[in-house]
Write a structure and sequence with these properties.
The chain is α+β, with helices and mostly antiparallel strands. Helices cover 24% and strands 39% of the residues. The protein contains three helices and nine strands. The chain is elongated. It comes from Fusarium oxysporum f. sp. conglutinans race 2 54008.
């Protein structure tokens, strides 16, 4: 408020659409079968941010919280679709490279990750799914 320089950075002028707010998201204008213009959401510009059910998810924050768990060598949080058939079927998945192959130890890692998620992350940013990988691509 009352910061004209910051306000100017947050908006862009368009001859066709007027004054537009920079949301930090990528989108494009497409036309449906009847010729109506629609805005198609493509995702966040930042690679460590995503949208899930209309909420901004900070993937880097999830990774930061879960990477502190002893036994986690590397970790990447990602948004994935559970089903191709349903709109809104995306969920957060934590991909873990662990220092163990033992299923009991891996379950303990997941339990600890869930505990840390509950403690440090809002409910909508807690991964419901964990998968183990030998290495990250």
């Amino acid at each position: 408020m009352h910061r004209p320089e910051e306000t100017a950075k947050a908006y862009v002028s368009s001859a066709e659409y007027g004054r537009l707010y920079r949301t930090g998201d990528m989108a494009r204008i497409v036309w449906d079968m009847s010729g109506r213009q629609l805005i198609e959401f493509l995702g966040a510009i930042s690679l460590d941010q995503a949208k899930l059910s209309g909420r901004r998810v900070e993937l880097g924050e999830i990774e930061s919280v879960l990477s502190t768990v002893p036994g986690v060598i590397e970790l990447v949080a990602a948004i994935t679709k559970v089903s191709d058939a349903r709109e809104g079927s995306e969920q957060i998945v934590a991909c873990i490279v662990a220092n163990t192959q033992s299923s009991d130890e891996r379950q303990r890692l997941v339990d600890t990750c869930c505990h840390n998620s509950d403690k440090f992350l809002p409910a909508y940013m807690r991964p419901p799914r964990y998968i183990f990988l030998d290495s990250l691509p």
